[in-house]
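In the previous chapter we treated chains in isolation. Here, by contrast, the input contains two separate entities that must be folded as one system, with a combined length of 355 residues.
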Amino acid sequence: MVTVRLATPLRKFSDGKPEITADGETLQEVIENINAKSPGFADRIIENGEIKRFVNIYVNNEDVKMGKGLATKIGKNDIISILPAVSGG
Amino acid sequence: MGLTLEEIKRYSRQLVLPNFGSREQNRLKNSKVAITGAGGLGCPTAAYLTLAGVGEIHIIDMDRVDLTNLNRQFLYTPQDVGRAKAEIAARRLGEVNPNIKIIAINEKITYDNAFELLKGYDAVVDGTDNFPVRYAVNDACAVNRIPLFHGAVLMYEGRAMSIIPRETACFRCAFPEPPPPGMVPTCREAGVLGSMTGLVASIQATEAIRHLAGFEIALKNKLLIINADTMEFDTVRLKRREDCSACGKQFVSKPVLEVCETRQEE
């Protein structure tokens, strides 16, 4: 199980919870497993097999787009943060 | 220009801070800062910069005070409803610290005027409330090489980052594109607590004041994510993108409004 932190705009997929746990050995698998419980989740994040341009995903605070993207290997104690930009003020 | 006796007494609580002396206070006194947006973030950032003794503060906002602003925008009273925010904020803060110059700029920031409007400042503190203006402010600061102190709030979540153009990741490096319209709600739609805007604004102001005084700042190449549900403060690492359309090798940015509209048509 890994911890997945969801930014406010994505919390309709977690019953409003800021943090959920999920299984998966890669980032892609983790997202698919969340999607199985909360359909529509993957579509908010992935487009044509890649992370959407306006969504950032950090594994242990590192941007996966600068590394292996959806193929990033996920370990047991990793923390994944998924966030689009917010603009309120 | 040195400090007057009144200033030495007024700022004495910060002048006793380690490594903070008359040289640092004079740097603040000789600084010129723009606050974009005099709302939930802009009121407290403008207030703290005023209190700290930043010499010249320009408050840019064309909105008028609305009753719904008063749960968080503490520079306004019910009597101010309908009046120009920038002017009231400037007048009120001018009373708090008559040593400094505060100028109200009653103008709407757009992609067309941002590059001219945001020129000649030592820093910009962003307290705007929508993507088109935020990207315009970011791009103008990137091109004009003005340090930008970013903050944003949504419900119980806050974000902050400090941008030194051409040295650290800018807002477009972190988020090359805004989310499509409707994906990320506004404060009007989703709500915001005044203390959350105060929390984020205090961080923006602290970073800006420290930078202007000559200190190293903490939120370069970092995005701070504050989650008031858990009171976890995360910092994720950011990197400059060589292909960034605002601060990369070639400036090719377009107004975000155009990007949003194109996407809606698709």
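The longest helix of chain B spans residues 194-213. The beta strands of chain B are 32-36, 56-60, 101-105, 123-126, 148-154, 157-163, 222-227, 232-237. Compare these points with the single-chain example from earlier in the chapter.
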